[in-house]
Amino acid sequence: xxxxxxxxxxxxxxxxxxxxxxxxxxxxxxxxxxxxxxxxxxxxxxxxxxxxxxxxxxxxxxxxxxxxxxxxxxxxxxxxxxxxxxxxxxxxxxxxxxxxxxxxxxxxxxxxxxxxxxxxxxxxxxxxxxxxxxxxxxxxxxxxxxxxxxxxxxxxxxxxxxxxxxxxxxxxxxxxxxxxxxxxxxxxxxxxxxxxxxxxxxxxxxxxxxxxxxxxxxxxxxxxxxxxxxxxxxxxxxxxxxxxxxxxxxxxxxxxxxxxxxxxxxxxxxxxxxxxxxxxxxxxxxxxxxxxxxxxxxxxxxxxxxxxxxxxxxxxxxxxxxxxxxxxxxxxxxxxxxxxxxxxxxxxxxxxxxxxxxxxxxxxxxxxxxxxxxxxxxxxxxxxxxxxx
Length: 389
Known about the structure:
By secondary structure, this protein is an alpha/beta fold.
């Protein structure tokens, strides 16, 4: 695509990656993504904000052929999908200084081999003058790397937010409008990438609250031309109080654990608790990450395999621990043949949650009436804990 105007003298640049389905060999992106860079022209200079993945460099090269000279280059985030084409940009514009946070400078040198003498580290609140326009740098650490920052164009009330408020969504549209699908894609992005950093996100949201913002231009997905929607969504997602909701990742081998899972779902619903079962045989990691954003409780349904949890459950426990959701309570239900340690070693796989462990319910073989009554009691305990939140 050619460079496209989002405001007078402000251009979208970059590339839309329609085919990509996995990010960082880790994150599912079912709808592709985009790598957004921006060009801001003032009466006294032109600034390029971010670049693209190196593999998409030909797109940016042809766009730069259209726009002419660049006087300033800005790296908001050192990760390769935003800074990977920086070496070529700096070679093309040898007199243009490169601006980043102080930690960003070190990471650009370490990860991309950029000459440190080209990088001018900026303090939080520093500005550069483009004549009739200026750009202010706002440090936003841990969204989602420690060196990240945003850039604010006060004259147009535009926040260039990099990964903050982004969405992995390949689209020809420049603006989100009131399309709920964009917020849903942003929620998936938040769940997969931003969720472990919600404490930092809340602090950075407070900092951005002092700005008058009419457009948020992230580095993935369409721009938010109705920014209040995404700001309110981030405030909700990053808030510390969870919802009255249970996420139930589960797998069954011979049906016994499956019976207990169905009993727990029914018992929780009867008590007014929202339940999201997640079948680990057909797991969508992204949807699980989204479900975890506001869940008060996670209950793992697992048969015992060689004394411990089913390997699929153990893998998901590691994922849940990595995402660090605001979950307050965890528990385990499942069956075993002759002996089990799953009630102890599965919660031990979640040290970063710091959640209360509610007594697991484990059945020897096929669950009988006493086992099902214990599942009902677990549902009652969960509902009571949720009422106390």
